[in-house]
Amino acid sequence: MISYDELKKLAALSKLSLDGEDMDALAADITNILEFTDTIAQAAVELPEGDNAPADWNYREDILQQSFPAEKIVSNAGERQDGFFVARKKGGLTE
Asked: Is position 49 within any domain?
């Protein structure tokens, strides 16, 4: 079970404001999730053998190809600087 001290730390990191009832409900939910992950971690997993073994998997080959010219991409930009789009900062966010 998750302790209330750990839950308070998580709530602070998540910028959540919790009261008694919410703390109890969240503690129960997190405890259930942690118990479920423990169950999954204990599951017996058999890796495939033979033709289906991970070392035999066929991955797509990386093919190098010419990328689209950056100059042509930024040519549609309303405002650009040094070959990049210029994005304006909009509302509410302060540093």
From this structure: no
